[in-house]
Amino acid sequence: MSDTSNTLQSPQPALPQIDPASRRRSRIKLVSIFAIFAVPLILASIYLQMVRTSGGTLGDTARGELIKPAVPLTEFTLQGATEEFNLDSIRGVWTMLYVPQGECLDACERNLYHMRQVRLALNHRMDRVQRAVVMASPTQISPALLSEHPGLIAATGSAEEQSVLGAQIIEAQTGMAPLPDAIYLIDPFGNLMLRFPADLEPNLMLKDIKHLLKVSRIG
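^ that's the sequence the OP posted. Answer follows.
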C-alpha cells in the first residue's frame, strides 16, 4: 500500500519552457511566410473585382490606367517638411503621388487641386488616403501654393536621391505609353498600381479610388 502511495505522489517531469524570444521569432516567420503567399492573392483579387464591377472598362483611357502587374517600390529616402518620406511613409495607407516636371504651372496646380478635392470627397474614408508630391527643388512649388494644400506631403532631395524613386516609376510603366503629369496611386503594401492622366476629370479619379477602398480592406 505504501508503494502505491509513493508512486501516486511522485513528481511529474517539468514541461520544457519556451523562450519568449524564440516564440516571437517563430510568429514573425509565420507571418512573413503568410505575407509572401497571401499578398499577391489579395492584390489579384482586388484587381479582378475592380475590373468585374467596372464592367471591364477599368484600365482604358476613360479612367485610371492599371499598371499590370503592380510594381512593388523598393527603399527610397526623400526629405519632407518635418520628416523623411520613404517606403515606411507609404505603407498602411493609399497614396496619391505626383511628380511635377519643370515649373509648377497650370497643369501642376490643377493636379494638386484635384488630389485635394478627391481626397476630401471620400468623406469618412479620406483618412485611408494621403497625398504626396515630389519636388525637383524646394522652390519648385511656391510656399503660397503649398499653404493651400494642408496635409500634402511635399518631399524633395538631391538629384541622386530623387532618381532612386524616379527610376522605379519609369520602369513600372515599361510598355505603356508616356503619360506626362500623371498622378499615381500606390497601395498600402507599397505597390505602384494605377496612374491617372492629368486631363482626367476628378470625378472619374474619385470613382476609381472609391471603388478600390470599397473592395479592399487594406489601408
